[in-house]
Fold this protein.
Amino acid sequence: MKQLKFWKNRGQRELKEGKPEGTHKKKYKKLIIVSVLVLAVLTVAVKAMMPKEVVLPQVETYTVGRGDIAETLDTTGVMQTEEVKTYFSPVGAVVEKCDVKLGEYVTAGQKLASFRLSDLEEEYQEAQLNLDSTMASYREAMAEGGKNASKYQTNAQSAAILQRQVDQKEAEVDALKASLDNMSKDATKKSADDTNWMNNRRNELTDENTKVDKEKTEKSLDLQRKQDELAKIEGQLDGAGTASGNQAAGDAAGLNERKAQLEKDIDRLNEQLSKLNIRQIEISGELATLSVNEDGDKKVAQADLQSRYEKASSELAELKSDLAEAEGKRDSAEAGIMSGETRNKLLISNNLSQLSAMTVKERVEMARGGIVAEFSGIITDVKVAEGSLAAAGTEMFTVSNAQNVNVEVSVNKNDLEKVKVGQKAVITSVGNTYQGTVERISHTATMNSQNVPVVSAFIHIDNPDENIYLGMEAKALISLDSAEDVLLIPSEALNEGKDGPFCYVLENGIVTVRLITLGLSTDDYIEVTGGLKEGDQVISILPQGLTEGSQAEAVFGDMAGMDEGQAGKPEDGAEPETGAEQPGGEPESESGRQEEQSEGASEPAQGPSESGQQETLPEAE
């Protein structure tokens, strides 16, 4: 009001002085323009001297938070049965009825085919006649073979005993001959000092000879008992040769086992007796030598040894003759014994005849009921037609069990250690969904179409139904593992380096590198078990040109499925980093700041404009 009054009084004064009314307005208008120009120049100069604000590159970050994760394996495979049953014709007969078709679903107990049975009784009667004939031939052959076997056993036993006697006598002859040789070479130049030694040695040899006699007696008695038992067992085996049935077979097995043990024991005892005889001969020879050396009557002792040697040699010759005779009888009896191969053939022929008769009868009974499906499934092969003649054993149908089904999937080496027996899976095939369980994992790798080794895993279908189509492709989602309340980062934030996995973290506006350890993973998230902590700001993708140590400002992302404030957003109450979003929601840009400065620079010009408006007030008044 005072300013208006000033302009009003001044105008009246100038009018009184006779000056033109617009003269003072022109002067002050020039003054105002000059002032505005000066102010503008000063503003530009001040702005030029101020430091320019640095514009930082922006990176999208996610806040490390906690959440739940479930790792799965998504793969494909083929529906296949775990049980296949091929049905064969039990008899040679005409197929009277067969109305199943390839690919048809059948239920357990459903009749698949029936036979015409008019010709089967004749087949059964023929089988019975063959059985009677075979049984008679078998019994006759076994009886004759048993007689020859008994003769062979007797002569073989005699030959074995004679052989052991020959061996013993040969050892005796050799020992006597050695004593004679030693006696002839032994010098009788013994001094009187050797008398005591010879007496002591004689006593030692006499005591040892007594012990040997005692031991020979014991072993001879034991040998006789075992030989008697062996002869008894062999007689029992001869009688068991013609017997039949499981009991007889079991008894024969036990007798043969005991016989083998006795033969081993008899051989061992004979060997021990032979050694004892040899030792007695050696003792006798040494005693004779001592006597010769002591008495000096060497010729008498040598003549005695020579006599014993000749007698033993004569006995040896007789034993060898008896042995040759026993071996001849044994070989002759052996020629009449049925060979093991012939015995087996007869036994097999007899068993086949029995089975044939039994089987024909059983097959007739089976044929009366026809071919019946043992389980619900799908007909995957049909080999016969109604009215055709099916020979016994002819393949008729193949049924694949539709209630015992699995999906075979291929697992590569990266996923193999994660897939375990017992894991659950969801199977989808032909628009139907089923629950499954990993039943088994193959331990043999094969090459797939890309020449990569893979291992087959088999997922059992837990809830099969009639909508399953064998051989069709199926998708399998295997639940590998899960974890709750663990640290998670988005998958795109993971990087791989020579030192292992790492991620970029924005710390106080600086890009840093963190080596991390990993847990479970999905397509979207990865569990971090070490290297990060809750609240860290990980960079999803580091822009080109930025490296470790670069400055940047954060633009917060969002991890879908995570609680707000945990995955991709700052926690409640957290202050944004430098250069973060402003309350308006958009980051402040350099152009925005320039526009704001330009607007600020033009503000001083508004003052004179207002003065100009004030300038016209007197006219309005």
Notes: The radius of gyration is 58 Å. Residues 58-66+485-589 form a domain with the conserved putative lor/sdh protein from methanococcus maripaludis s2 fold fold (CATH 2.40.420.20). The CA atoms of residues 217 and 582 lie 118 Å apart.
